[in-house]
Amino acid sequence: MLAIALSAVPWASLAARAQDDGLIGRKVLAVYRKEDIKGAFKDIAFLQIHTRAEMPLNHLGVEVVYREASEGLPDPAGLRGYAGVLAWFERRPDSPAPGPVCRWLRSALLAGTRVVVLGDLGTYAPLEVRDPAVDQACVEMLKTLGAEVAARQSVDVLGAAVASVDKRLMGFERAVSLDGLSYVPRVRLLPGGRALLRLALSEGALKQSEPVGVTSRGALALDPFFLYENKEIFPFQYRWVVDPFAFFEEAFRLKGLPRPDVTTINGRRVYINHVDGDGFFNRSELDPKKWSGEVFLGEIVDKYPDTPFSVSMITGYADLAGFNDASSWKLARDLLTRPNVEPASHGYAHPLVWNSGKLALNIPGYRMDAGREVAWSVAYLNERVLPKERPTRLFFWTGDCLPSAQDVAVAEKAGLLHVNGEGGRFDGRYPSYSYLYPLSRQVGAARQVYAPASNEDSYTNHWTGPFFGFREVVETFEKTGLPRRVKPVDVYVHLYGAEKYAALQAIHKVFEWARAKPLHPVWISRYIRSVQGFFTMRVRRLGEGRFRLEGGAPMRTIRFDAEKRSPDLASSKGVIGFKREGESLYVFLDEGEAREVVLSAQAPRLPYLAEANFEVSRWVRDGGGVRFFRQGWWKGECVLAGLAPARAYRVRSGPADLRLVSDAAGTLRVGFPDAEGQDPAREVRVEPQP
Amino acid sequence: MIFSWTQVVSFFAVMAVMGWFVYPSEYFRGQMYRDEGNRSRSIDFYQGYLHRHPFHKGATRALAASFEAAGRPEEAVGLLEAFYRHRRGDATAGREVLAAMDNAGMRERAAAFRRELFADFKNKPGADSPWLEELLYRDLQEAAVAQDEAAMVAALKALSMVAAEKTGYRDRMLQHFLVRRDFDSALNLLQERFAQEPRDPEPRRMAVRIHRMRKDRGAALAAIEDGLRQFPRDAGLLAERVSIHVEAKRCGDAVPDLKMLLALQPKELEWPRALGSCLIEGGKLEDGVRFYEDLLRLDPSNRSRWWSLVYVYADAGRYAESSSWLERFLAKFPDDEAGIDMLAYEYEIMERLDDAIGVLKRRLARSPADLKRARALASLLAQEDRYPETAQAYEYLVSRVPDDKDSWQAVIYQHRSHQKFPEAARATERFIRRFPDDPKAYDALASVHLAVGDRAKAIDALESYFKRVGVAVPPAVSISSAPGRPGDR
């Protein structure tokens, strides 16, 4: 069944990460078998690579492409656009022997592709076999990877001790611990490998084992030493023992590469509010005479008119008695046509389970149809609810948010931007990066963009209480912002949040937190386009510290980590500014399609944007000053740098005409009294004064 | 009048009675506010009610629910905590506090409160042990996740008390100490277990292992003695003592224990092996060997058991027996290279050189490509100065490895040293054809020719070298003027 072609291409130098044409591989191929997925629904959404490893890889600028082994694995010679291959083996009683996959992995290694192996060594013996042997094909593959392995060894509590640990990469969220250890994989790294964890064994022929390490051709991290699991309490607890960011960076040789970054625009963290239309017609306990949708409009949307909201509506209400009267839909129209609201569809009957067609709304005579749920519901809004000049192309997935490839194809064919599903938490109950989901889910040939954060459902026990629970989302926002910014801020709620007073209070608290932070508010459609740009952008190395970014125009930020150099603004193209935060250098790009970033040890001497809470376009440096167009939601704030020190500048934009003086470092902080919201972008002129 | 005074009075009396039944009580009226808006009315109401009726259970709960519904869970927690402390020991109230803390995300406070609950309930008659165990188990798991060592130990100690009948927690605590190599704590715990589990020898065995890990042989032996007093036939303890004696190279002291182990566990193969080894070490070779032979009979395909016998005799210098075993071993495993080498070696030691040679020749007959043995054979023949066999042996090596200069030179040497000059010359000529740039070969050839008095050929040999390197032969150079060398004539 497997189509495995051994490469005839001789093994290439591992140092040649870039192809001859300079294109840098930004993809990792994740190889899996459908039997590795628990349950009847075999979707990558349930794979550990997806739920745990993909987010750190996305943060490193990598796209993960999934390939199921029985569908045929690619010719290893064709992997030149890939940073490497990732396989996470789990020992399951119904999984087939791993030999074929291991043979393919070996051929990939021989073709010069880096391979990372995680998990159990794919023994696939019955679970009652205590120390199962390793499949011979896997033994050979691992030897090619740079490790000699043998059958794992049972140990008792005195049988193993930690001999050495690489503290830079291990102990990330939890120190290495041998509590409960009953077996040890027997691994010896070959010369050229570096053990991140070495165990001393008191029994057996092998006196040491190195179950976590990096080799010259990749890396391996074996159970139970790289990810801690505790399923004795709920929620199940996971902690990364290995630092997944540093580990994958080293394993796939990603250090020093530019990373497309969706979390930040113009140096400010992206801030989204998006609302699912569930519960529009629930009665609110704040005023039993009002629908929750109406209360949400008054208490939230209208209370923060300078803040953008992406709000969706379930169109099937229009076909249900009790909700299809003119006044109800006038309310819906009022909500969706507010100047600070970006309207969207949340389906027709709101499928709860896309796979089975189970629906939330019981509409007489209707059975789930993807066309009606997706494309038709958006068209309905455009024709019946929204004014012609403000149509929507936005769709929020519903229920379990696991649409099939056919469902997603409907959205893609209709030209819709679509989002929802997963998100993740990182707080006191889920205190680990391992609970955060990646940017998207691969669905056939398309990608479903995930919501950046979980909605209040997760915080309120599926809306059974405590209804104030959503206030805990602030902790997730804080932890996903520092020390690494891995997610934007996304306040993701349902309209039924206005049904309960405590829930509404929690939402207000979250908004107060967000409004006190230096964020960059956008509609979710903007974020979706950034994510699309992440996947379409190609990065080409032109030389040392020189990169060309092709495509992915909506992707406006590139991040370098641990980079001491700065952008050479004179030599770069399409770079309008940059900002350092912690260990990261965020480089801001203009709206063009082909941009070049050149790094230099010299500090830049041209004016540049250091941060802004609005979008910038048509950036031009002009006579010691700059001109650009701005468009944002909150009162405009920006910092310009690289100007002449202690110099007077005139800043004009719309009615604003400001006289400001740069500081000794040549930095100018500008605050505009207004914002554009939905209005067209406004020009800003910054001119030095005599 | 339509109605009499009696009827009117009766009517109003009945209305008053009905009103007294039907009109909602103050408390009941308060209930009606519960689901309204921001709960300010219900909160005010229940706060007032509790002011007049402190620690009223229903009102407390209602007020707490109102606080939660108003998005003020911290106040709900404070209220319920105060209520619990007023009614300390009320399990239901305790559960409600924990639930409120969990809802509010007060994890640390919840952990502290669980410990407070445990302190309150641990000695309470009729306490709900399963519930306490559940609380403490959660504590344990959270501490384990957080790697809070002190909290883990505290939880395990508490669990051991609450669920005394479950040995799992004590086992886990022991493992906790052992993983961290906190042997003092582990030993203290084991001491307690000796008394708690007098019929279980496992704690005693573990104590012995700990002493051994600390390299405290005396303590380990004392612990074994103590244990054997309780469990005189415990194989684990006996095995530990055997290991201690063997490690201390006092194998003979282990013999009585090994004999007992053999009786207790007749199927365990380690005991006869160890016993045999110890007897042999103690000078009782014949007695010891019997056990090795027994082991071999059980599994003749196990090569290591053959080798045990071979080495027993070899180490004792009894090569006759050793080689006899090797012969039998090689009859079964004729291609075992280590066996072949060992047998040849032993034959040599016993000066049974023909036999040694025979072993190697038989090996080469079966495996002509075995160069290692081919060299060994050649070397042995040379050692015995067996000509022309030695030369043939080296010729064989040359035929297999034409670039092996050492073998070539050995061939030449063999012929020369046995005065077989024509053969030496032919061999040298062949060597030169193989290695035309080796100047010493020309010299050697010339020397051989001279040895038989053939000066012309000697000169030819030297001239051919000079031609090869492109050097004109100096006219003054002649054999007669060449420096003489001993033996040339």
Overall domain count of chain A: 3
Residue stretches of chain A low in confidence (pLDDT < 50, at least 5 long) are: 1-17
What is the 3D form of chain B? elongated
* E-strand count of chain B: 0
List the chains of the largest interface with their residue counts. Answer: A-B, 36 and 30 residues
Mean pLDDT of chain A comes to: 92
Distance between the terminal alpha carbons of chain A, to the nearest Å?
77 Å
Percent helix range of chain A:
10-25%
Q: What structural category characterises the helix and strand content of chain B? A: mainly alpha
Quaternary organisation: heterodimer
Say what the CATH topology of the largest domain in chain A is: 7-stranded beta/alpha barrel
Question: Order of strands across the widest beta sheet of chain A?
Answer: 2-1-3-4-10-9-8-6
Question: How many E-type strands of chain A?
Answer: 42
Strand share of the residues of chain A? 25-35%
Question: What proportion of the residues of chain B form beta strands (DSSP E)?
Answer: under 5%
Query: What integer value in Å does the Rg of chain A equal?
Result: 27 Å
What is the H/E order of chain B? HHHHHHHHHHHHHHHHHHHHHHHHHHH
DSSP summary: helix tally of chain B: 27
Q: How many helices of chain A does DSSP assign? A: 12
Dominant shape of chain A: globular
Helix/strand layout:
The complex is a heterodimer of chains A (690) and B (489).
Chain A: E1 27-32, H1 48-59, E2 63-68, E3 82-89, H2 99-110, E4 115-119, H3 136-145, E5 147-154, E6 160-165, E7 183-189, E8 194-201, E9 208-215, E10 218-222, E11 227-230, E12 237-240, H4 244-251, E13 259-260, E14 264-265, E15 268-276, E16 283-284, E17 287-291, H5 292-301, E18 309-313, H6 326-336, E19 341-345, E20 351-353, E21 358-359, H7 370-385, E22 394-396, H8 405-413, E23 417-419, E24 440-443, E25 446-449, H9 456-459, H10 473-479, E26 489-494, H11 501-515, E27 519-521, H12 524-536, E28 538-543, E29 546-550, E30 557-561, E31 566-567, E32 575-581, E33 584-589, E34 594-600, E35 608-612, E36 614-622, E37 625-632, E38 637-641, E39 648-653, E40 656-661, E41 668-671, E42 682-688
Parallel strand pairs in A: 1-2, 1-3, 3-4, 4-10, 15-18, 15-26, 15-27, 18-19, 22-23
Antiparallel strand pairs in A: 5-7, 6-8, 8-9, 9-10, 11-12, 13-30, 14-15, 16-17, 20-21, 24-25, 28-29, 29-34, 30-33, 31-34, 32-33, 35-38, 36-37, 37-42, 38-41, 39-40, 39-42
Helix pairs in contact in A: 1-4, 2-3, 5-6, 7-8
Chain B: H1 5-22, H2 26-31, H3 40-52, H4 57-69, H5 73-86, H6 91-103, H7 107-121, H8 129-146, H9 149-162, H10 167-179, H11 183-196, H12 202-213, H13 217-230, H14 235-247, H15 251-264, H16 270-281, H17 285-298, H18 303-315, H19 319-332, H20 337-349, H21 353-366, H22 371-383, H23 389-400, H24 405-417, H25 421-434, H26 439-451, H27 455-469
Helix pairs in contact in B: 3-4, 4-5, 5-6, 6-7, 7-8, 8-9, 9-10, 10-11, 11-12, 12-13, 12-14, 13-14, 14-15, 15-16, 16-17, 17-18, 18-19, 19-20, 20-21, 21-22, 22-23, 23-24, 24-25, 25-26, 26-27
